[in-house]
Amino acid sequence: MQENERKLQQEAEGGTEQISEKTTEQLEATPQVEPKVTEETTPEIQEETKAEEVSSDAPETSGSTEDSNDHLDEIDESNAEDAEDSDNEKRHYIPILDYHSMSIENLVGELQRLVKNEKVQAIGKHVSSIKYEFDQKFQEFIEHKKEEFVEKGGNEIDFKYNSVTKRQFNEVYSEYREKRDHYYKQLEQSLKDNLQKRLDIIEELKGLIDIEEDINTTYNNFKDLQHRWKTAGPIPRTNYNDVWRTYHHHMEIFYDFLHLNRELRDLDFKHNLEEKQKLVERAEALADEPDLGKAFRELQTLHKIWKEDIGPVAKENREEIWDRFSNATKAMHQRRQEHFLELEKGYEVNLVKKQEIIAAIAKIAEKVSDNHRGIQKQIKDVEELRESFFKAGKVPQKVNEETWGQFKDAVRQFNRSKNSFYKNQKRDQQQNLERKKELLDLAISLKDNDDFASTTPEMKRIQSEWKKIGHVPRKYSDKIWNEFKNACNHYFDRLHSEQNEAHKEEFENFKNKNASLERLKKFQLSGDRKKDLEELKGFLAEWKQHGRIPYNKKHINSKFNKIMDALFKKMGLSRQESDLLRYGNKVQELAKTEDNQAIGNERIFIKRKVDEIKAEIRQLENNLQFFSGDSEDNPLVKQVFNNLNKQKEALQTWKDKLKNLNILEHKLNKEAEEEEQAGEEE
């Protein structure tokens, strides 16, 4: 016992560094394991266990197995932690949520809530659990982003990712650490001082039996020491149980000393027995408490009162009262163990679910699709499986790391196979890029050529060749297309400008069309639909009569059509109806001329337009496959859908025009046949 006291004295004088180091170790404990608490005691302290157990009303004989005191160790360790600071007790009432199923954003939010609203010394296990889950999920998230980066053509060594969520987590966790370190820095000196106070009280207690004075005075001094002990304040949790045992050991010696005044001692023994009987009854009643957490916390409190507030009882009652209290504690311990076993069964069910999810991911990884659309669907499927994995709940701790590793391996294998496909696609796109660069260079070299007769067919061939080449890497697509388009537009603008100089008639037509446009601007609908339609048809006929205009003046056609469309809209005509109305005038003109060659040329022109629009529709529908995994809210997807709808409407309009032309041709053929028959009859 002297050696034990010497070690306690050394720890009390050991300084700030020792206490803070132990404190940090407590806070950084791994949260995933259900703690099995064991006391770390020196051999000298362990040798005196039997004597100390006697002083705490434990049985004098101990032939128990190694784990027979687990039910007491659990209580002692928890009380030691609470004894360090009363605010520690609040940790019992802060629920530990299912952090495993939370997203990294929700984990940050929960950490912020805890750090802002709860005592820093009460949330150590909560914070450690959150950090464990966040680190695992963020690492998996970063690997996922890296795979996406590589998929889009990036080099893995160049990958960088700036995560706002990670930055927020680090800021909140740093705030927690600062608060925690500040708290324990302030607390450690107080704990050290209180430890010294208690050791001094023990020394005074030891000295009471050597003082020659009236027994009543000595007894009063003893009571004063008991009061001082109760108000001495918290001490480091690592010293709590040893200091308490030493104190009770010497208190027992003092009670033996009181045999000189049995009346005082027996009175104390009687009072202590009555109080401990009350505690035992309360402990036994906890067997009927349905709330296991509440019952366990109540039992902790009873043990604390037993230790700190009530002294020993007479030897003849000691074993009986302790056995009852210990048995009630053991029953609670058994209930908790059964509860944990039930939880473990649930974890086993979760393990089966997660293994099925891992197997499903592995199956997809074994047979990755060989086309973009198929891979995009598989990416969506794997993402859904990932979410299911996190929502499946905890698994037994012994297989947690193994299960997590299998999950990451399965996802990684899928990503590798997927990236292999896109790397090959990237190679093809790179080859397409080189071919388009060659065409671009050729177009640039020809854009200022004045030999229009030979250059124009070559520029058209270049444009046709360009359309046949597939996709290029996305980051180059817009740039190279704009450069190519500008080169082509530059050449054809020059060509049309040159043609305008050669065709003076086009400028005269432009002058006449401009005059028609000015008159059309002033035109007002009368409300007589038939009359208004006839007048508008007159404008259309006049506009067509004026013929071709210079290429760089063609914007006037848009102005004319825009006004006509507005007038048709006011009259209630759709865009398609107005287009067909315009074409009806042209059909009438063709009918007047009865020029079969002109009608044939018009038919060829319309069929070519129909074929071109069909090809454009097929191209747009193929383009949509590259967005199969994207939301319809994506601006690019919306643009493709809008273009597709416009092309389909245009296709229907051209088909209707072809129908009108067929009707005209059939009518002319019929009239020709009738005239021929009439001639034969004559």
Ordered list of secondary-structure elements with their pairings:
Elements: H1 2-12, H2 16-27, H3 43-47, H4 49-55, H5 70-84, H6 104-117, H7 124-151, H8 164-207, H9 215-230, H10 237-257, H11 262-285, H12 292-308, H13 315-366, H14 372-391, H15 400-446, H16 452-468, H17 474-502, H18 504-522, H19 529-545, H20 555-570, H21 575-593, H22 596-625, H23 635-681
How would you portray this structure in words?
It is a single chain. By secondary structure, the chain is mostly helical. It contains 23 helices and no strands. Helix 6 (104-117) crosses helix 8 (164-207). The protein is rod-shaped.
Quick synopsis:
The chain is mainly alpha-helical. It contains 23 helices and no strands.
Key structural traits:
single chain, 682 residues, mainly alpha, 23 helices, rod-shaped, disordered N terminus
